[in-house]
Design brief:
The complex is a heterodimer of chains A (441) and B (293). By secondary structure, chain A is α/β, with parallel strands linked by helices. In chain A, helix 2 packs antiparallel against helix 12. Chain A is globular. Chain A has two domains: 197 residues, D-Maltodextrin-Binding Protein, domain 2, CATH 3.40.190.10; 203 residues, Periplasmic binding protein-like II (D-Maltodextrin-Binding Protein, domain 2). Chain A is 43% helix and 13% strand. Chain A starts with a helix and ends with a helix. Chain B has one domain: Orthogonal Bundle (MetI-like fold). Chain B has twelve helices and no strands. Classes of the chains: A alpha/beta (441), B mainly alpha (293). The interface between A and B is large, with 44 and 37 residues.
Amino acid sequence: MKMKKAASLLLGASVLAGSLAGCSTGNPASEDSTSKNGTTTIEFWAAPNPPQQAYWKETAKAFEKDHPKIKIKVSPIKESPTSEASIQSAIAGKEAPTMSENINRGFAAQLAESKAIEPLNKMAGYDDILKSRNMSNTIKGWKFSDGNQYVLPIYSNAMLFGWRLDILKKLGVNEPPKTYSEVLDVTKKLKAKYPDKYLWAKPDLADPTAWKRWFDFFMLYDAASGGNKFIEGNKLVADDKAGVDVLNFMDNIRKEKGILTKQSKDPFETGLGIFTDIGPWTLQYWEEKFPEMKYNETFAFSTPPVPDGTDTKNVSTFADTKGLVIYSSAPENEKKAAMEFIKWVYSKPENDVKWMEKTNLPPARDDLATNDAFKVIYEKNPALKPYAEAIPNAVPSIDNAKYNELQTYIGQYAVNPVVKGEVQPKKGWEKMKEAIEGDLK
Amino acid sequence: MRAKNNNGMGWLFASPYLLYGLIFFLIPLGWSFYLSITDWNLIAPVFHHVGIDNFIKALKSPGVHAAFFVTFKFMIVFVPMVIASSLIVALVVHGLPRFKGLFLIGFFLPYLASGVVSSFIVKGFLSYNSPVNTFLRGQFGLDINWLGTPLSALLLVAVIIAWKFTGYYALILTSGFESINQEIYEAAAIDGVNGWQRFWKITLPLLYPALFTTLILSIGVTFGIFTEVYQLTGGGPNFGTNTWQMEIYKQAFQNLSAGYASAVALIASVVTFISIFIIRKFLEMWGKRNGWT
């Protein structure tokens, strides 16, 4: 009898403990979390890398001086196992912060579909931010299919291709090729002179992981299609001609033995490959690890090559861009305080200057190439200027909540088998479309 | 009365484990069952009960098919490899006149090494422009795509995991060897048994319990392969190394489909349970038929 009682007690205690844990309410949205002395504290999760952490901590301190009634707790987003999964767990456990950065458009679409983030365009002060930061054009591509803006882009890396200028010059080519046939011509010259080198040495080309398509397929596709959206809402609106052109381009380089998909260490830096996607973050890495990489000596940048006969000016490219979101679970006073903070940060161009100096990531503004405040950065680091100039033509990632599955199909059915010579480009494109359309139904 | 008191004490002492089991196994298992019949992503305010749709979808998915077959492919390659290597290590260590413990610790160390670190080292070692590959290309014209074909990638991952577990299993097998009474060998020598009879009639039967343990443990490992695959191949090429854990990870943490991932996890558990049960029965039958148990 006693044993039964003990067992019942044990079970009861466990169930109660479990229920209590499960019923934790965190910060209900309706509650006002203002403390007795009238201070609102907001929790801000920033990207876990040291430059961004340092930037946000300094900026928060400066803001608090001007706004003593708002406190900002900046902490790094945990990456266990990924930052997205950490955010998902936090929301599920009702422990989400007030706001966070480092959110890409695809993940934002997942959060928006789950009504976990606020449509910023419906919040007071949103228009002021766009105006004061001069970002009305840049943000246009960020509009979600429901017409709302859920993310305020912080930076926009208009992805460019890097070319080994020193090797190109040895081939008798003085500037990066701009069209597909020019690239093929360079491939032929390269293989004739250096049979052991490759045009494009990149293992990711054979890897179906979704995000990897941003840095090969989407760069070329955006350029070939003039920035076509690929997927709009739940509809595949891809430009067939541009898509097949891109795959044919990859296939033609493969046929010339210009693609290497085997694992290789620093292929571009060692000159094993002479063409690859480069983001501005690489420049900082090169400064430390490959000081011999000199802009306009060893390497040069170009927008993605385009099909023959296409205009080679104002070429579109993929925008690797991330931004800020405000979580719906936060109390109203915290949301207001968060908006106040965002407004304050982006009312001053010097905050964006400081951001770019610390991170090398181009702020998402329309005037980045023309605003005098940024001139000093380009004088110090001229390699950043092409990125600033490309921002108006940069296309952010797709805003579908299933972006991960959909982009995996691009690799699985089209890019990966094409670069391995396992499927004809047109057939690969059709199979990819079939898989995407099947999933979008 | 005394028996009842003893029972109560028994429950009391067992309660920490029971509580632990309840909170960390039973409640999550029940939760996982519930999730698997929903389309919930854990954060949406609205979700739907989808019955067995997630299970049907999983059973039709190429990723799940791959996980099923890849696990058995790993088993075929990894289990003989790790058992052979750990037997060799155990035999060598068993034959040492001294410092057995020291050598065993040395062989055991890879077990403590991080799978992430060892995978990174292997990745660098086998990269196209590594000294090894440059040498192979230059001297023998061998251009091997180590991680680029399903078979080579699977073999490579199996070798890394075998390297990691060899020392651990060797420890178990060495203790098996040590427990065999040397007098039996001496008596057998007087009876004039040859080397093969000595192994088959004495060593193997007496080592069987340790061997049984290592076999079951190594088979269990093949159902839980993740880190090496995640770091080296991402489950590719062409799903060639897509294990159960990799598939669950992709669905839960990349696609954020908690409901579907739970269904895949439950299918994986059932497959694991049935497979290990059948293999265990076979091993027991093998032991019984030879009179080892």
